[in-house]
TrEMBL record:
Membrane-spanning parts: 12-33, 53-77, 98-122, 128-147
Record's protein name: Molybdopterin-binding protein
InterPro entries (UniProt xref): OxRdtase_Mopterin-bd_dom, OxRdtase_Mopterin-bd_sf
Alphabetical list of PANTHER family matching this protein: BLL0505 PROTEIN (PTHR43032:SF2), PROTEIN-METHIONINE-SULFOXIDE REDUCTASE (PTHR43032)
Organism, scientific name: Nocardioides euryhalodurans
Classification via SUPFAM superfamilies: Oxidoreductase molybdopterin-binding domain
Oxidoreductase molybdopterin-binding domain ranges (all copies): 238-368
Keyword terms, alphabetized: Membrane, Transmembrane, Transmembrane helix
Length: 370
């Protein structure tokens, strides 16, 4: 079973899932950059939902694939290195690049899995580190495939059970046939997909045992940070609550009733958490543009949102001008036909199309057009 015949076949699927994970990861990283040379588009509204769903699904599917792949190739680590200096140097370079590939791949999958369960047992910034090592892994992967290409080609052209490419030391048959091992591997990857896909695909929710964030929260929507955890229980329910909207010297404040008295619109937009879950909801509230007009902010103004939450990385977010001017971008007061619950951002929250969940700021206190 530990032959190039198996390794190359598992490798193809692993390569596809890493490639997909890499590309969708780049999208997610870019969507969260404060300065974007090419502005991230506001349409389609569900775009980020799809790319981030695929990111977490392909990453999870890569876990069993990587485990099987490592298991099929690890005896190669114990092969005797060549005696000649030139051969030895090539071997050291190759094993070195594989060490980098394995270490970065394991780091990416482990940190990604932990993140998808909202578990951050480390002090470094997840996004920066995950992003940097993604480039390391993809670079090492491209190098690995390039080095192995002749062998991969030969192995894929031959029958799975062909033993011509096997290690000379591989003499004993395995407990499973090669086809049996491959089928089990595809099954494991399929189970990993189904177990996480419910995070973003509604009808799979019941069978997706790893879709931890999709359990019904208040108003049919999961909650990442609760009002209690954000420390806003008092300020968000206080009768003294005011939303401040500012542009240049102009400054207006709105109580909850004043916000409710402004023209209300309803939009169906998803929340797509970077941790993988996503859900559509029907949001009702004031168009952001309506508020910006009231303080004379010109079209194209970028907007900074501040939360009642006093600390934490997600208490503020910046919204580019073309998102702020989009008719679907709301300061929402209601969700799915009910007044926004405290956990979903009462008194009001930002909801914009095609935007990572972490930037859909809840419990708004200040909206500043720049
Ligand atoms: N002020 C504030 N807003 C926030 C957050 C937060 O921690 N603080 N979490 C964000 C994240 S990570 C997500 S995915 C969405 C989730 O919104 P929900 O809890 O209403 O579903 O809210 C976002 N808004
Ligand atoms: Mo999130």
């Amino acid at each position: 079973m530990r032959s190039p015949a198996v390794a190359s076949r598992v490798g193809v699927l692993l390569g596809i899932s890493f490639g997909l994970c890499f590309l969708t990861g780049l999208v997610s990283h870019y969507a969260q950059l404060p300065q974007q040379p090419v502005p991230f588009p506001a349409s389609p509204a569900w775009g980020y939902r799809v790319t981030q769903g695929l990111h977490v699904i392909s990453g999870t599917a890569a876990v069993p694939l990587l485990l099987v792949k490592l298991w099929t190739v690890y005896p190669r680590l114990f092969l005797r290195p060549p005696r000649r200096l030139r051969g030895l140097l090539v071997e050291v370079a190759e094993r070195g690049s594989i060490a980098v590939l394995v270490a970065s791949a394991v780091f990416l999958l482990a940190s990604g899995l932990a993140n998808s369960t909202a578990w951050y047992p480390w002090a470094f910034s997840f996004r920066t580190t995950h992003y940097a090592l993604a480039w390391v892994a993809i670079g090492a992967l491209v190098l690995h495939v390039a080095v192995k290409l002749p062998l991969i080609r030969q192995a894929l052209r031959a029958d799975v059970d062909d033993t011509a490419l096997d290690r000379p030391t591989a003499t004993e048959p395995g407990a499973l046939s090669r086809r049996g091992l491959l089928r089990t591997t595809w099954l494991a990857a399929g189970v990993a997909v189904v177990a996480t896909a419910g995070n973003s695909v509604g009808w799979l929710r019941e069978v997706s045992v790893l879709a931890v964030r999709s359990s019904d929260g208040p108003q049919g929507l999961p909650v990442t940070k609760s009002a209690r955890a954000a420390g806003v229980l008092e300020t968000a329910t206080s009768p003294a609550y005011r939303l401040t909207v500012e542009h240049a010297g102009e400054r207006r404040t709105f109580g909850l009733e004043e916000l409710q008295a402004l023209p209300q619109v309803t939009e169906t937009l998803p929340i797509a958490c970077v941790e993988g879950w996503s859900e559509n909801a029907e949001w009702t509230g004031v168009r952001l543009r309506t508020l910006l007009d009231l303080v004379g902010a010109p079209a194209g103004s970028a907007v900074v949102f501040e939360s009642l939450q006093e600390s934490g990385a997600f208490r503020t977010s910046a919204l580019p001008g073309h998102f702020a001017d989009d008719d679907r971008t709301l300061v929402a007061l209601r969700v799915n036909g009910e007044v926004l619950s405290l956990d979903h951002g009462h008194p009001c929250r930002l909801i914009a199309p095609n935007r990572p969940g972490v930037r859909q700021t809840k419990w708004l206190s200040r909206v500043v057009a720049t």
